[in-house]
UniProtKB/TrEMBL annotation, chain A:
Keywords: Amino-acid transport, Cell inner membrane, Cell membrane, Membrane, Plasmid, Transmembrane, Transmembrane helix, Transport. One of its GO terms (molecular function) is L-leucine transmembrane transporter activity. Its main location: membrane. Signal peptide: none annotated. Belongs to the binding-protein-dependent transport system permease family. LivHM subfamily. This is Branched-chain amino acid ABC transporter permease. It is a multi-pass membrane protein. GO terms for biological process: D-alanine transmembrane transport; L-alanine transport; L-isoleucine import across plasma membrane.
Length: 305, 374
């Protein structure tokens, strides 16, 4: 094994796939940070983004930049709808005991899983289980040569989008009133309510923002991958989840860093092992992190209410 | 369900009138078990359509004098329990001398155990599990397995002057059988395997495998996978600027491969049993007749059933009007060079595995085209 140009190419391949995981992990982690529960339907929001994007592209053939705001809007709507169906009913009791009840909160784990299954089956029913091709004019697959290294244009777009999303989210969270509200709810939902923050509205906003990011991720990855299917959200969803846990559950920059780490590790591992083993690398890293850094690599060790 | 009932009634009426007119002739019946309702009913439907065409052709051809052949269909629902019930029913009918079906390997083998014990020849158009024909000397199949296709493709690649190959295969039973078939065939012909790389089902990113494989500069990359992955693989190969030619298993043969892969799959080679574009007159007659009757182009599955029925009926003709289950089995085992639409088919008398001349294809100008020569 030598550190030649092929090795460098592997690192770049790994960063590309890591960016795909990161794109999904950002929205995932944002929602987790506020509610402290996993939103299992995030993968379906991602898939909805891809399918709506494809439908718009095939129906109207708009320029790519016009597709993005539309997908953002669809993402926001599905996020709000998801919150209404799967999360809000479990917050209808406002007494302190219910607010602190883990059982109430964790019931949403299953309700979001249920919404995810129902959504996926409906999409299967409408679109069929087959892969759907993307019209060639929209594909983000042109090879870009950087010296001897080849990168797909989609990788650059996804990298740039992840960076912009990360930056915008950090701005939203740390420089705006809304962000302050989100951080307050994330820190202590009951406390936030006591000091007069409209927690319901903050949670809805978080879902809208997180799902906008998820839906955009879906269409971009679809254009990069060249094909979409109702199952496309599952595999990156699992990797995004692992990245989130490794990153310390509620740290968005941590999740992004861990997503890139996962991508590069998988890619380099292919050099030494059969690529059939690459999931082993991912889960080994997860186990090692949890054993040696129970708070995650970037966790703050905050109190879990 | 209602459609099935009507079709059954029509078939039944045909049978009754058939026997009434030719009262002197012996009536020979072939049992056909296939999923005609449920999830897999589209396959059973295609089998029945193709079987009807073949049966009428046969009865009109005069290959068999002194007897009339009919096919009776039973719905196995792709369920092993149903298949066993059907097997007993067919065995109890003394007019039935042979059985075609079932669709999946699991169901075919469930019924096959009973046919093996009770000595009824069984020919499946699609059961590709290696153990199916190992059940007993009474099981036959009309579909080639990777143990046949792999060495066939290996010969083709060697004949084209390429000596080193990397194999990328899907990590499941089928993928491993495809890998074994190709690697043993390729090594036997003096080829060298530079790498074998598995990927997990559902994987969409092949860049790291491609980069790893390209380092060793093989003459060819052999793909044992399905069209979704094949299209993604070809696209990513193009993005990475890798020019190594691609060969693949027949599982890649689908219009979807080109729809998804576009220019990136240009030049991909594969060998397949059936293609509606094959200029062979037998294929064209079948395609036209099928399209005229059923308003759709026949696919691989319809073609497999059409040939399975043809092989069975020719064996009946060879055994003569006094055919028995034993003599039909022997006639089936002696099948050589049956001129079907899925290639000339011969059964190995010992293993009862089919050998076929496959159609060599490549993607050219955005569609699959038959290749002549190496």
């Amino acid at each position: 094994m030598v550190f030649d140009v092929f090795f460098l190419q592997q690192v770049i391949n790994g960063l590309s796939i890591g960016c795909v995981y990161a794109l999904m992990a950002i929205g995932f982690t944002l929602i987790f940070g506020v509610l402290n529960v996993v939103n299992f339907a995030h993968g379906e929001v991602y898939t909805i983004g891809a399918f709506v994007g494809l439908m718009v592209i095939t129906a109207m053939a708009p320029p790519l930049l016009a597709v993005v705001p539309l997908v953002l809007a669809v993402g926001a709507v599905s996020g709000v709808g998801l919150e209404r169906i799967a999360f809000r009913p479990f917050r209808r009791f406002t007494d302190e005991a219910s607010q602190k009840s883990r059982a109430m909160r964790e019931a949403t784990l299953l309700s979001s899983l249920a919404v995810s299954i129902v959504t996926r089956e409906i999409m299967m029913h409408i679109f069929g289980g087959d892969m759907q091709g993307i019209p060639s004019g929209y594909l983000l697959q042109q090879p870009v040569a950087i010296g001897p290294i080849m990168v797909a244009s989609g990788s650059l777009v996804i990298f740039a989008t992840s960076a912009v999303m990360l930056g915008a989210l950090q701005f939203l969270l740390y420089r705006t009133q809304t962000g302050l509200g989100i951080r307050a709810v994330s820190n202590n939902q009951l406390g936030a309510r006591y000091v007069g923050i409209n927690t319901d509205r903050t949670i809805v906003t978080t879902f809208a923002v997180g799902s906008m990011l998820g839906a955009t991720a879906g269409i971009l990855v679809g254009l990069y991958d060249g094909a979409i299917s109702p199952h496309m959200g599952f595999a990156p969803g699992v990797k995004a989840f692992v990245a989130m846990v490794m990153g310390g559950l509620s740290s968005i920059p941590g999740a992004v860093a861990c997503a890139l780490l996962l991508g590069v590790s998988e890619s380099i591992a292919t050099e030494f092992l059969s690529s059939g083993w690459k999931d082993l690398i991912t889960y080994s890293l997860l186990v090692i992190t949890l054993v040696f850094f129970p708070q995650g690599l970037f966790g703050h060790g905050r109190e879990r209410a | 369900m209602r459609k099935n009932a009507i079709l059954g009634a029509v078939l039944g009426a045909m049978l009754v009138t058939g026997t009434a007119v030719q009262a002197a002739d012996r009536e020979i019946v072939i049992g056909y078990q296939a999923p005609l309702s449920g999830d897999r009913s589209q396959y059973g439907e295609m089998f029945r359509n193709a079987a009807q065409i073949k049966l009428e052709e046969f009865n009109a051809s005069g290959k068999l004098t002194g007897a009339k052949v009919a096919i009776t269909f039973e719905d196995s629902k792709d369920d092993p329990k149903e298949a066993r019930n059907i097997a007993h029913k067919f065995l109890d009918n003394s007019k039935i001398v042979g059985v075609i079906g079932d669709f999946s390997s699991t169901v075919s083998m469930a019924a096959g155990e009973i046919y093996a014990a009770e000595k009824m020849p069984q020919l499946s158009q699609t059961a590709s599990h290696p153990d199916f024909t190992k059940l007993s000397p009474w099981q036959f199949r009309n579909i080639t397995t990777q143990a046949f296709e792999g060495p066939y493709n290996a010969d083709w690649i060697i004949a084209a002057g390429m000596k080193t190959a990397a194999v990328i295969y899907i990590q499941n039973d089928w993928g491993i059988s495809a890998l074994d078939g190709f690697v043993s065939g390729f090594k036997a012909k003096g080829g060298k395997i530079t790498a074998t790389e598995a990927f997990n089902p559902g994987n969409r990113d092949f860049r790291s495998i491609l980069t790893k494989v390209a380092r060793q500069k093989p003459d060819v990359i052999y793909l044992a996978m399905f069209y979704e992955e094949g299209a993604a693989f070809a696209q990513q190969r193009e993005q990475l600027g890798i020019k190594i030619p691609l060969y693949g298993t027949s599982s890649l043969y689908s219009p979807k491969l080109i729809e998804l892969g576009r220019e990136s799959v240009e030049g991909l080679h594969l060998a397949t049993t059936f293609t509606p574009d094959n200029p062979d007159p037998a294929v064209q007659t079948f395609v036209k007749e099928y399209a005229a009757r059923f308003k759709s182009e026949p696919g691989m599955f319809a073609a497999q059933a059409y040939d399975a029925v043809g092989i069975m009926l020719d064996a009946v003709a060879k055994a003569g009007p006094s055919v028995t289950r034993e003599s039909l089995r022997d006639a089936l085992a002696a099948t050589t060079g049956y001129p079907g639409v899925t290639g000339a088919t011969s059964f190995d008398p010992v293993t009862r595995e089919p050998a076929k001349a496959l159609a060599k294809m490549m993607v050219k100008d955005g569609r699959f085209q038959v290749v002549t020569g190496p």
